[in-house]
Design goal:
This protein has a single domain, classed as Carbamate kinase (3-Layer(aba) Sandwich), CATH 3.40.1160. By secondary structure, the protein is an alpha/beta fold. The longest helix is centred in the first third of the chain and has 24 residues. Helix 8 runs parallel beside helix 9. The protein contains 10 helices and 10 strands. The relative contact order is 0.18. Strand 3, helix 6 and strand 4 form a beta-alpha-beta unit. An 8-stranded mixed β-sheet has the order 3-4-2-1-5-9-10-8, with helices on both faces.
Length: about 270
């Protein structure tokens, strides 16, 4: 879609949210091929003069991959422990893959409370601007090891939206395991049709079939629509793409990929 392509081209400050289902292989471990491909695309955007912040899920699956013996335990303490272990594994992967391009990464772990305190939000904003100015890619995630509520709702779509508005980004890209928003669940209905352009995310509520949440991610299409509403009201567009597809951001910018573009309309 030409408008989707032009939106990426015209945006300098981009927040990219990477979902757990994008990073998870069939066994529940990290799909390193997919992650490496995303990092390569991000480096390509940086080479074009764009600034990129990543909001990355995946600490939980990285924890399972590192210490699989806890994977079936539902106790909250083990979930927190897996996220603590997995966050190290996740950042090591980002460090290695971005290092191939001579790019440094930085970790920022946040909770909802960080966005409620003006002093904290100012510090977060200053840290992001400083890192970006120095050519470092911030990798933001929820601080799952201490935030019980975040583990329960797993709302990194909201975290990405909050980051996007705080940084005053030009565009938010959500990489999920689906091509975009459909009029009904494409995994259950073969006649589902992709909605390529959404003028107002609010109009989708009640008009489409949400479908189920995925195995590894804790969000779903509903949280993505809500995230679009959050950024759109500040005039910031959001694009939903299938991050499991090779070079999806690059191809979308070239007009070859498909996805859903949520237009930004400032509330007055």
């Amino acid at each position: 879609m030409k408008q989707l392509s032009q939106t990426i081209k015209d945006s300098k400050k981009i927040v990219i949210k990477i979902g757990s289902n994008v990073l998870a292989g069939r066994s529940g471990s990290v799909n390193k091929k997919v992650l490496h491909n995303i990092v390569g695309q991000v480096n390509g955007l940086i080479g074009m003069g764009k600034q990129v912040i990543l909001v990355s899920s995946g600490a939980g699956i990285c924890g399972v991959g590192a210490i699989n013996k806890w994977s079936r335990r539902n106790d909250i303490n083990y979930k927190q422990a897996l996220c603590a272990i997995g966050q190290v594994e996740l950042m090591m992967a980002y460090k290695e893959y971005f290092g191939d391009y001579g790019v440094h990464v930085a970790q920022i772990l946040l909770t909802r409370d960080d966005f409620k305190d003006p002093h904290r939000t100012l510090n977060i904003r200053n840290a992001m601007f400083t890192l970006i100015d120095e050519g470092v890619v911030p990798v933001i995630n929820e601080n799952d090891s201490v935030s019980v509520d975040e583990i329960k709702i797993g709302d990194n779509d909201t975290l990405a939206a909050l980051t996007t508005t705080l940084w005053n980004a030009d565009l938010m890209i959500v990489l999920s395991d689906i091509d975009g928003v459909y009029d009904k669940d494409p995994k259950a209905s073969q006649d589902a049709k992709l909605i390529e352009l959404v003028d107002n995310a609010h109009t989708l509520e009640g008009s489409i079939s949400i479908g189920e949440k995925s195995s590894f991610g804790t969000g779903g299409i509903e949280t993505k629509i809500e995230a679009a509403e959050r950024v759109n009201k500040f005039g910031i567009p959001m694009i939903l793409l299938n991050g499991t597809k090779e070079n999806i951001i690059t191809e979308s910018m070239e007009g070859k990929g498909k996805g859903t573009l949520f237009l930004g309309t400032i509330e007055r």
